[in-house]
Amino acid sequence: MKISEIKTFPVVVGTRNQMLVKIETEEGIYGWGESGLVARELAVQGAVQHYREFLLGKNPMQRGRIWQEMYRSQYFEGGRVLTAAISAIDIALHDIVGKKLGIPVYELLGGKQREWVPTFATGNGNNTDEVVAMGQLLWNSGFKAFRLQYQHFTEDLLFEPRVALAATATALNAAREALGPEPVIGIDIHHRYSVAEAASFCNKLRPDTLDFVEEPIRDETPEAYAELRKMTNIPFAIGEEFASKWQFLPYIERGLTNFARLDICNVGGFTEAMKVAGWAEAHYIDLMPHNPLGPICVAATSHMAMAIPNFSWLEISEAPGKYDPTVFPSQPKIEPGKVTVLDQPGLGIEVDESLLNEPFIFSEPPHLHRTDGSHTNR
Fold it and tell me: Are 338 and 360 in contact (CB under 8 A)?
């Protein structure tokens, strides 16, 4: 079996762009993958087109060897654009191999560890009452774990960390008091704080308020996380921006993260994700995968989650239309608090290629600024 074509689809599905990749073979078997580099999809498309030049004619069964060739084939190896492209290709290759062998992808990874995948949701509020109400809504709908987000930037994208952290801490403390000890409650700070600001935020919380705080500061400098680790006992969830096992290295080896927020569509697909999962297992760290994309990402991450022992919850987010059943007529079953993968060969994903025709729309995440006019982290 040989690869005969690699197609890219940077298209709008629902309300946002998706960057899908289809790999075809001369036997007629094909596989689907997805890239996770949101708002830079055309850069990934270009990288995939470069890889296409030497992947045509390769044997897709040799997915590990292909991964190494893609990663090592350029002088300037690595980086988020390249590994996002590698991720989409690697996921599609696993889809092909599963279909060729007639087994679900999780069987390629070691078989089932669980019957379904636990999930967590995210809810937003604009004030304390709304945050508390959102927590109650998520809990009553069936989610045992969720993030509660305080919408702390204005319509003109003004964000002041000290104002935000005080209001957010007040809202989260109130949510815990209202909901009691049972729910797992976390927050994603989107690395908007400095070390000092993140420490102030954590110290304004009651000791039992949060079960995890995600990305409180930027991740480029592990030493900064080591300093913050000394200032709070709240577990950290870090890693959604990591583009390789090497980026995870200091965070796992030095105990700087308690949950690995691995993104299978950015880190390098199944081939790299399973290495990180085993490494994390050796340090008693659970994976809490980042999963903000479409149903191909849901399927790929769920197959991985089915096959590893050290797993907590999968992020799930039902933005309008991105799981469109007309575009994706076969996809995992999503219910409050759980995802069930289809026991079909490969990923269990089918895509109506004729509907991938909504043109790509340039989009940007919010560019936040402070009162003095300076830019700050998204």
Answer: no
Q: Are residues 26 and 73 in the same domain?
A: yes
Task: Tell me how far CA of residue 152 lies from CA of 126, 167, 184, 294, in angstroms.
Answer: 7, 8, 22, 26
Q: Rounded to the nearest 10 degrees, how much is the dihedral formed by the CA atoms of 349, 355, 361, 364?
A: -20
Q: Note whether 81 and 204 are same-domain residues.
A: no
How would you class 123 by CB atoms within 10 Å of its CB: exposed for 0-12, middle for 13-18, buried for 19 or more?
buried
Residue range(s) defining the domain that contains residue 295 = 107-345
Q: Domain total for the chain?
A: 2
For a pLDDT cut of 70, what percent of the chain falls above it? Answer: 100
Q: List the CATH number of the domain containing 37.
A: 3.30.390.10
> Which two three-digit tokens encode residue 309?
């022992």
Q: What is the pLDDT of residues 193-233, one digit of tens each?
A: 999 999 999 999 999 999 999 999 999 999 999 999 999 99
Domain match, 135 and 242 both: yes
Round to whole Å and give the CA distance between 187 and 68: 36
Residues 6+ apart with CB under 8 A from 46: none
In-domain check, residue 230: yes
Its pTM surpasses 0.85:
yes
Same domain, yes or no: 73 and 214: no
Q: Is the domain of 48 the same as that of 165? A: no
The catalytic residues are 190, 290
Residues 130 and 93 in one domain: no
C-alpha 199/C-alpha 204 separation (Å) is 9
Query: Does some domain include residue 307?
Result: yes
Q: E-assigned strands of 113-194? A: 117-125, 145-150, 184-188
| pLDDT-based confidence at residue 363 (cuts at 50, 70, 90) | confident
Neighbours of 258 (CB within 10 A): 21
Say if residues 246 and 222 touch (Cβ distance below 8 Å). no
Reading the block at residue 66, the tokens are 């292909």
Q: How far apart are the first and last CA of the chain?
A: 44
Specify whether 18 is located in the same domain as 146: no
